[in-house]
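re: the backbone from monday

yeah here it is again, tokenized this time
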């Protein structure tokens, strides 16, 4: 292989694939990035056997086509430190690779490209196309509710489900549920078999990181029996799916409540963030909400001190006291895009449901803590 390419293009490609490289693996080849040069240009690929990403071909002068697998960390550092705007890469028969830019030159040992695990050959079935921004928002507004422990592996991912010409994404960790819905275009023809799959949280986190921010970019995705494939103009991203039965969330967001609170999202968020200042570990502390006729009183009592705050609110129904892990409330309030939110309560021991005032495309259920004293 012998090529010449722009440094900025190569760095962009390395940024796309770099985080998918395995850092702890018994297979040294997975610590590498696969470089492929052909007549159409150059592309990079990384694979950790759970997910893989491959860039589309980008512009390069290809004098000799070929492949080589190079240590990802070393190669990336070399490219970043190169002095010129162009980099020449040449491989010898023993996979020794020479990287040259300006007067700088590195000789590094690579591995045979044909030993690298490539993406499986998957037939594209009918799938979905949604704006990349909407896909990013779906992930951003739900991913924090994924279970961190793998006692029930299926809950370490998110359910993606097609229902009533909309895509629903749901995350559950046993203490809360996050739900987001986006309507599919009425002109789009739905797949013959509407999907209901569980995507690993790690996959969604990586996808969110590399999704383009341009408003007109589209994310296409489709499925095989055990994989999901995302197609975008600059890359293809493939991940395994999780197996297992996800919880039934259909009836959880019901309309039964005794107290309806409408409040400014930022005011409530600010009050909760102030309340946790006296907590040494806000993952284990609690805050008490006292729902009054025209306000919410927020209190926190810990070994570090006490906090008191009062937030104006429109309250309909019963007054009550209820306690929560403040982190769960804060994480929800940070991702809701509307300025005013609705919080609905049944009793001081029943879950709270939070959503925006204008629509219920994003909804959240949070279990309370037991009040002490």
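seq for it, each position gets an aa:
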């Amino acid at each position: 292989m012998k090529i010449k390419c722009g440094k900025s293009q190569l760095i962009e490609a390395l940024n796309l694939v770099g985080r998918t490289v395995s850092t702890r693996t018994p297979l040294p080849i997975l610590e590498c990035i696969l470089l492929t040069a052909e007549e159409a240009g150059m592309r990079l690929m990384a694979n950790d056997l759970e997910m893989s990403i491959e860039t589309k071909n980008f512009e390069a002068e290809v004098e000799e086509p070929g492949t080589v697998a190079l240590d990802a960390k070393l190669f990336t550092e070399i490219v970043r430190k190169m002095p010129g705007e162009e980099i020449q890469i040449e491989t010898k028969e023993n996979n020794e690779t020479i990287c040259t830019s300006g007067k700088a030159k590195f000789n590094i040992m690579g591995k045979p490209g044909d030993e690298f695990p490539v993406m499986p050959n998957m037939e594209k079935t009918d799938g979905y196309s949604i704006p990349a921004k909407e896909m990013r928002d779906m992930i951003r507004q739900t991913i924090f509710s994924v279970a961190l422990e793998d006692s029930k592996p299926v809950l370490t991912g998110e359910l993606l489900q097609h229902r009533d010409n909309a895509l629903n994404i749901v995350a559950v960790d046993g203490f809360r549920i996050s739900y987001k819905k986006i309507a599919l275009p009425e002109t789009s023809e739905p797949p013959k078999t509407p999907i209901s799959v569980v995507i690993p949280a790690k996959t969604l986190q990586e996808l969110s990181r590399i999704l383009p921010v341009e408003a007109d970019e589209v994310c296409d995705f489709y499925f095989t029996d055990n994989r999901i494939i995302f197609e975008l103009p600059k890359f293809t991203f493939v991940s395994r799916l999780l197996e297992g039965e996800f919880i039934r969330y259909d009836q959880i967001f019901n309309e039964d409540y005794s107290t309806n609170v409408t409040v400014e999202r930022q005011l409530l968020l600010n009050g909760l963030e102030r309340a946790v200042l006296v907590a040494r570990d806000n993952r284990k502390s609690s805050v008490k909400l006292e729902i009054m006729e025209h306000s919410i009183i927020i209190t926190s009592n810990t070994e570090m001190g006490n906090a008191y705050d009062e937030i104006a609110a429109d309250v309909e129904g019963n007054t009550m006291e209820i306690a929560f892990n403040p982190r769960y409330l804060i994480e929800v309030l940070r991702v809701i895009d509307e300025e005013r939110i609705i919080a609905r309560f049944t009793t001081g021991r029943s879950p709270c449901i939070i959503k925006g005032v204008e629509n219920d495309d994003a909804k959240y259920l949070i279990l309370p803590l037991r009040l002490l004293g």
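The longest helix spans residues 7-17. The first strand starts at residue 2 and ends at 6.
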